[in-house]
Amino acid sequence: xxxxxxxxxxxxxxxEKCEIIITKGGSGNLLKSIRIxxxxxxxxxxxxxxxxxxxxxxxxxxxIHVGYNKAAIMVQEGxxxxxxxxxxxxxxxxxxxxxxxxxSGSIGRETQKIFEKKxxxxxxxxxxCTLTTDLKDMHEDLKEKKIDLAINWYATAVxxxxxxxxDALPIDEDYICFKEKTGVRVA
Length: 187
Known about the structure:
This protein folds into two domains: 2-66, no CATH class; 69-169, D-Maltodextrin-Binding Protein, domain 2, CATH 3.40.190. The protein is built from six helices and seven strands. It has helices at 2-16, 27-37, 48-56, 106-118, 121-127, 135-143, and strands at residues 60-69, 71-76, 97-100, 130-132, 149-153, 166-169, 179-186. The strands form two sheets. Strands 4-3-5-2-6 form a five-stranded mixed sheet. A two-stranded antiparallel sheet has the order 1-7. By secondary structure, it is of the alpha/beta class.
């Protein structure tokens, strides 16, 4: 969300003659920062589970639905290994897999929910080469052909810097959840 949020911040700064400071990171890491620092005006996590946690802990005063994103299987551009759009590929030990830690961010939590719904989370986790807190690493590893597949938000595959190097494969609708991205005011 950093690209649109940066554009929106620039517009507001110009209109309102103010300064906006954006802190970016995984939804879980940002939540930890809010808990500790008690600072912030808006929190835009990638999963409603973080919103529920904020509400339960009294960290927010208002929530507003902003939009949603959809998880997708990410492969190298052109899909040179002919990886099918099937979650079972994450059980194949011949692939190098990169996933986000569910404790760090929204796509990690979403990934865990998808595989738990399928009943194979533990096996997928065991078969994962890299469990990261930084999605930028995931994109770089796909671009540099260090990994074969990952799961990330579909939108990241069409970013200008990723589109020539990464293809997104759909995830079966029986397993995927559309997660609302919600703007939240910090109390």
